[in-house]
UniProtKB/TrEMBL annotation:
This is Acetate kinase. Homodimer. It comes from the Bacteria. Keywords: ATP-binding, Cytoplasm, Kinase, Magnesium, Metal-binding, Nucleotide-binding, Transferase. The record marks H189, R250 as: Transition state stabilizer. It is found in: Cytoplasm. The keyword Protein biosynthesis does not apply. GO terms for biological process: acetate metabolic process; acetyl-CoA biosynthetic process. ATP binds at K14, H217, L218, G219, N220, G221, D292, M293, R294, G341, I342, G343, E344, N345. Catalyzes the formation of acetyl phosphate from acetate and ATP. Can also catalyze the reverse reaction. The gene is ackA.
């Protein structure tokens, strides 16, 4: 089955075409046929595509909306330029899988998109006003380009965390705010945490019930998840992706009283403070330099840049603090799994986070850690009682696989049945 995976943003459309089916999923032999993105949709858009053989093609085109961008991409996929012999016309694309940011309390798993499901995604707009409307546009554009008969599946960033218990997802706010406005912790990056947990299971040959791990997705956005018996039991992100770890430009945890204080002292609206916490904080905010961890590591080494060093210290300390907290919540774990751009590629950051976790039984193997860059494998000593692994994430692959699984099982629950009273 050729599955087109779409991630639609406000002015961008990212895509991958993946050949997969139940056999390939079992054997981990899915094939990525091409990938790319359209940026600056709305005018002269920039189209970047990577063919199967790895060549990169960059061009510009007047693309006014997501529908036209998708049409353009599908035409390219079916052309000789894409080098994909299996797809000669749009009908050779058998399904579309969409990344949808917020499924709220309605969607606890990936689902085939029906009109009813679309209404449910619309209901969640309040919870993710910047993201869900764009995801809906992507779904409607696919209906327009491929026709209403092509199966489409929604895979939610939040749904892996639906198993988090009430005592972990409730904020200690007046309870009616939860009932009235659904204010609670939801968690994000669920597709990534679930993917690496699946791969960990395969690597270690353990069952879902035996999967007790803490996954650390460290990229531009960062989150930690406590996984017990294969299910998410707590995660660091909350109502929005702002809570938790220090990120590229997001603050992570702060005292909520600080919002008012900044507003008063700096003469900003709460809306502007929100933007400051999301876009000007984190690694960028502390260092005053950049949100790019590679540059921070370089500057802290070569130039002895004090604030770059400080940003890295705060980043690693917060990650270690969450590991400690999750170990306490879970009782024990078998491994910590690193993923995301930083987690997959920076032995230095992994070592700094793990340094000080010897009390928990973690002993990092320095040479394994140094070697494991963009690769999958163990980085702890064999006699560690708490292991550490690096597992590169692949959210698009999980979306493609869920799309296949949902279509074959025709999983499309009625939203009315899902609604939590
Ligand atoms: P992501 O959002 O998963 O693409 O991750 C982006 C982050 O990964 C950025 O902060 C990059 O600086 C960081 N990153 C990528 N490669 C490396 C590396 N070799 N060392 C440290 N950080 C890296």
């Amino acid at each position: 089955m050729n599955v087109l995976v779409l991630n639609s943003g406000s002015s961008s459309l990212k895509f991958q075409l993946i050949a997969t089916d139940l056999g390939r999923i079992t054997e981990n032999k899915d094939e990525r046929l091409c990938r790319g993105q359209v940026e600056q949709i709305g005018g002269e858009a920039i189209v970047t595509v990577h063919t199967r053989s790895g060549t990169r093609q960059k061009s510009t085109a007047s693309l006014f909306d997501i529908s036209r961008s998708l049409e353009y991409l599908v035409r390219w996929i079916a052309s000789d330029e894409s080098e994909i012999m299996e797809v000669r016309s749009p009908s050779d694309i058998h399904a579309v899988g969409h990344r949808v940011v917020h499924g709220g309390e309605l969607f606890t798993e990936s689902t085939v998109i029906t009109d009813e499901v679309l209404k449910g995604i619309e209901e969640c707009i309040d919870l993710a006003p910047l993201h869900n409307p764009n995801n809906i546009k992507g779904i409607l554009a696919s209906r327009q380009v491929f026709g209403p008969k092509l199966p489409q599946v929604a895979v939610f960033d939040t749904s892996f965390h639906h198993s988090i218990p009430e005592h972990a997802y409730l904020y200690a706010l007046p309870y009616h705010l939860y009932k009235r406005h659904h204010i609670r912790r939801y968690g994000f990056h669920g597709t990534s945490h679930r993917y690496v947990a699946d791969r960990y299971r395969a690597l270690r040959a353990v069952t879902e019930e035996q999967t007790h791990i803490i996954t650390l997705h460290l990229g531009n956005g960062c989150s930690a998840t406590a996984i017990r018996g294969g299910r998410s039991v707590d995660t660091s992100m909350g109502m929005t992706p702002l809570e938790g770890l220090v990120m590229g430009t997001r603050s992570g945890d702060i005292d909520p009283a600080v919002v008012n204080l900044i507003a008063r002292k700096e003469g900003l609206s709460t809306h502007e403070v929100d933007a400051l916490l999301n876009n000007q904080s984190g690694l960028l905010g502390i260092s005053g330099l950049t949100n790019d961890m590679r540059v921070l590591l370089q500057e802290s080494r070569d130039q002895d840049h004090r604030r770059a060093q400080l940003a890295i210290e705060v980043f690693c300390y917060r990650a270690r603090k969450y590991i400690g907290a999750f170990l306490a919540c879970m009782g024990a774990a078998d491994a910590i799994v690193f993923t995301g751009g930083i987690g997959e590629n920076s032995p230095d950051i992994r070592a700094r986070i793990c340094n000080g976790l010897e009390w928990a039984g973690l002993r990092l193997d320095d040479s394994r850690n140094k070697r494991m860059v963009g690769l999958e494998g163990q980085i702890s000593c064999d006699d560690s009682s708490l292991h550490a692994f690096v597992i590169p994430t692949d959210e698009e692959l999980l979306i493609a696989r869920d799309t296949v699984r949902c279509i074959l099982s025709e999983r499309s629950p009625r939203v009315e049945e899902l609604r939590i009273q």
